[in-house]
Amino acid sequence: MKNKHIYTAFLFGAFLFWGCSEEDDIFAVPFVPEVEQVTPPPVNYTSGTADFSTYVSVGNSLTAGFSDNALFVRGQTASFPNILAQQFALAGGGDFSQPLMNDDLGGLLLGGNEIADTRLIFDAANQVPVNIPGDPTTEVSNVLSGPFNNMGVPGAKSYHLLANGYGNVAGVAAGLANPYFARMASNPNASVMEDAMAQNPTFFSLWIGSNDILGYAVSGGSGEDHNLTGNLDASTYAGNDITNAGVFAQVYNGLLATLTAGGAVGIVANLPNVTDAPYFTTVPHAPLDPTNPSFGPQIPTLNTVFGAMNQVFAFLGVPERSVVFSENSASAVVIRDETLIDLSAQIAQVLNADPNFPLFVQQFGLPPQAAPLVANLFGAAYGQVRQATVEDLLVLPSRNVIGSINQDSFAFLQSQGLSPELAAQFSAEGITYALDDQWVLIPSEQTAIADATVAFNTTIAAAAEQFDLAFFDANTFLNTVATTGVPIQSGDNPATVTADFVTGGAFSLDGVHPSPRGYAVAANQMIGIINAKYGSNLPEVNPVDFTGLYLN
Fold it and tell me: How many CB atoms lie within 10 A of CB 393?
């Protein structure tokens, strides 16, 4: 059909040509109109009511540009403050200095000894994250000469920003100081806020508080929740504790009072729900595959062992603790739940009273006289266990643990007279040996995290309003990334970043921190909020220009 139209058009043109005189032939020389090349006028970027001349960012690893479980030069270059500073420079922003690491390997040395690993890269051949080969070259005791506009300190909690001596190299080995701040502090007794304020910022960003919850979360809730203990003395808190909400509020409001004292304005960000991150959503609660040759053939024996235990659970009135492994579909791991009533003594008592239990013991090659010992071992092992449910969250590192032999259990069972083979059989993580607290967030621990997040975010939102600052709702943003993804433009092709581990593009391989692309998307969110609040017209960046996944 298309060719027919061309042919018809040709004949029509020929007819016109032949019907015209030479003098009237207007088709002999085609008319080509001149097109004037118009150069668009340059955009005049303005700061509005803000003053970007001295921008200082205050926070933790999210501010520092930490990703792939390390701080390294390329990651720091893609930090959201550095991205903001580049856009601020279009509207009067000044230089922005960062305490750059020595290399792109990541990792830290203290006195020549490695104290932090190199960054993670994705091993495509084996489909797993691995540490990039090489030795770190960044020595903590080689203190850099500041000042630094980026005062993001990986590992810092809210109250650490006020702590004098938090950057003392002499305290790093004992855990009394932070190695990242130690290499950039103006003096051993300085605090993060003192060094930040010494620069007289005209504009600031403050994103702090995630570590006040994160340590508890990534440790499987193995720390203390000081909203329950009521402990208000932050100096006594452990690294995996949740900060008391009252303590956080006092510290946070004090930080903003200090940052705004000289007339500076800025942007603050609230806290994401950390359990939306792939660190908590990647490993399923039921990862035990019956087609796995290392697990499937063991299922009949396992169900025999737990069959005896399930009868005891039923007798004790807790049939919901029964453990059954499916031969047809994936099974849930066995976990230790400290909220359950400890039935260790009752289990041992019931088994010792069972006249058939010595026969049960004999099938494992043990003499009937070993029945009391085994009854006590079973009681100790299964007094607070159950199979995981969809409501439980397994932390990312658990995938390297499930099915492995717990060495402490293996050694203990051998000390009790079991053979190495039998000790190993009853020490399989998540199968015969219940996953410990550090590998699982049970619902009550998730509630503690959620409650603290709500309380902290209430403080942050109120403070942003009180001090009349731009406010980035990072909580809603991450929830959107995790549920529907956030669209970005890749040339003429739309793309989406999600919270899917490895493939989503928003998160790095540590499962907690954004990738450079994720930081760029967050920076764009902040730019839009800053423009709306202060009347600036800063342009966004293209997130596709930033790395989503490092293969090297």
Answer: 24
